[in-house]
Structure of EAL domain-containing protein:
Amino acid sequence: MSRTVQTLCHDIRYLADELAAVSGSHDEKGLAHLSTCCATLLELLQAAPAYDDPRPAPDHMALSRYERTLLCEHDVIWHWQTGSDALTLSSRWKTLYHNDPAPSLTQWCQALHPDDRERVLALCHEAATTSGVSRIECRLRDGRGQWRFVRLRSVDNHDADTPGRTGVLSDITHERYRDPVTGLGNSDLLDQLLEDALQKPHGTRHALVKITMVNATLLSESEHFNNTRELETRLAALLGELLPADRLIALPGFSYALVVPFEDQQALQGFLAPLQQMLGMPLETPTGRVWLSYVVGVVPFDASSDMQVETLRKQARLTVNNASCTGVGGIHYYSDELQERARRASRGEQLIRDALACNGVLCYLQPIVSVREGGRVVAFEALMRLRDGEEGIAMPGAFIEAAESTGLIHQLSQQLIDKALYILVDPAFTARFGQEFVININLSRHQLKDAMLVDDMLRLINKHGADPRRVNLEITESAVLAEPALALRNLVRLREHGISIALDDFGSGYSSLSQLCELPLDCIKIDRRFVMDLEHEPRKRHVMTSVIDLCRRLEFRVVVEGVEESATLKTVCDMGAEQIQGFIYARPMACQDVPDRLNATLLPLSKQPA
């Protein structure tokens, strides 16, 4: 009889799923067969519930999980009398779920997940008013307190004595919670584990640990593995040796996760130390050993907090992404600073895209003054600003980092350069400042290693009919060091076309002196950090004097940046500085305002008339 019950359950599951898949059509023959199977099961349930208990195969051979599923070991026969709400479950219920069956469907639904209760009850009542098959999935907690995924398949029963719906309740936890390749838990299980952890008693601490194999995609394409699945299986087995396999989660992109309880920081570090040691060891393959590049992100959290599951997962992704950018290896912990940085990056990218689409890239100018020529404006530095609908004008700190990381710096710079070069031929500027002033334009590290930099720059210069000798491109040491050979080649070509090169922020790095000898330069801009408190620090004054004298011997023009006070201006002029850029003469202003607000010759603010 046991095998008969198993056969009936198997048929009901197969027929119900097939009929549910083609709900738009009516398969009368299939529906009739399904109804017959359910009626037979109901008779068995009423006559001898114990028959529902499947026995091992006669030869006691070990069955795989898939084979046990086929034999319906995880099925419960159920019947619901719609009129009285009475619910009857076979004896297998208590064996599988470790608690007594509820007497009514309404009470049984109270054991379901809170998000499923009303939905399941409503679907059952809806099915009771229609003929045919119904299939409902939900989560219920078993007697051990663990959530299980179940699928209810049923068909209406027209028996005059027991009208209602009869069918099979199947445990599909493995189907819903398991990754088919590795056999580990999947993303749905991770959500459930996090939800369970958040519902623990107040003060209980947990950590979401996320592990990402950074070089796994490359390894899967190498000669060491036949395909991606083979590497996924190997990694799952490797992690399963150290971590609890029933709580280990496999995520897309060769990532894995774990929710672990801990008492204090020291205990958590003690748990993670063996993991770090294991990941640092090579993986042996038939064709040789391979080394894994990994990052581990850890998000500690307290139970009974207002934290949401999706928030925890976002924080884990953020931690791992940040760790990948800083380098592989090591264990990285989430902090609110990462969240704030991500917020700024997201807002910065949106600012950039909006500015590019709506002509919101603005060119601001700050004059460079020759003190040797009585304050004549000899150049302007073009500074980028973005139009911001919320705050009016966005300063570089709000978007430059996002521009560099997304590669949008190229498009931004193209628009800025286009507007800056027009100033050289703008009649208003020519009338006020003459035909000799220079425009300074900053180049990022991405631009400096762009093979099309020179061609793009010459194209824009020719577009405006500007003189390339009036263009001064500012670079930094870090930009050059990002790709030295290509950067040097671009700089040499630019100078061959008459464009001058200035080394910006001189003195802020560690290799400035060597750059003076190796780079094709025309101008040195001394960083404002040298200038701050210059008159009060003798060492800075000695260094500044030496730098100015050295640059004069090397025939470089020198611009001292960041001069704001009269005392500082006097000090740097006494040292021999000839060109000054700073608030003491003017702050950056929109290019269209410059001709009306500035004269061709500027006095320090302290000497300007009120």
Remarks:
- The mean pLDDT is 85.
- The first strand starts at residue 75 and ends at 81.
- Residues 69 and 246 are 19 Å apart (CA to CA).
- The two ends are 106 Å apart (CA to CA).
